[in-house]
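Researcher: Dear colleague, please comment on this protein.
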Amino acid sequence: MKRSFFGVIVSLYLVTGTVMAQTVTLDYFFNHETHQTKGRQTERFHYLWEDTANSGFSVWGDIFRSKGATLSRLDTAPTAANLKGTAVYIIVDPDSRKENPNPNYIQQADADNIARWVKAGGVLIMMANDSANVELNHFNVLAAKFGMHFNNDMQSHVIDDAHFENGAVLISNNPVFKTSKKAFIKDACSIGLSGRAKPLLKAANGTAIAAITKYGKGTVIAIGDPWLYNEYVNGRLPAGFDNDKAAADLAVYVLSQCKLHPNRNMVN
């Protein structure tokens, strides 16, 4: 007997958990670094979906795609209109003047817009860096909305490739990282927590370097380092570290937490 179109759609939902792809949007506004190519052309780089060098997020982007997500970028300040349709919004390493002579700092209005979007069901990932390589003052305007504060310090300092173990993070019975057991996170800032915010990952000394909280219908995850860029998920790490599994775990988790209608008015 032929199945109805409605029956096919219901079956697809039961098998995959969703029918339409969820949009994962990466910020390109607060992080806007450039460098000169060999041909002396100015080129964007650092934590971009399309950057396939060690500095990019192309590997993590491919993992999101493999889970059925659609990738997007946001080149302007976040608003209710341009966040509409985004299920996951990722902000990584906002620029300081060291990285960009005219940085786009996170303003109170930006924090308010993002907080309203999260409250309605969005999933926000904030990735900082050690304090020498990120602008924390304005980033903390946003983090404070969720009971989080990126501290002006450096945890899990790793001098060189001979000291990978200094960046080891052991993972057990974690609600987000269910298959990864030993991650590598180096030179991260710690995260102060208040209210409902809880530690998600800790450095060897017990300080929180990743945190999670619920906010309205949405979810916020903060990490003290860009962490999952290509250099540390492409197999370069020694045996025993499984950042590739951590990247997949995080992708699966955040997509499962999305409460917003997927793929509506996708940002191009």
About this structure: The first strand starts at residue 23 and ends at 27.
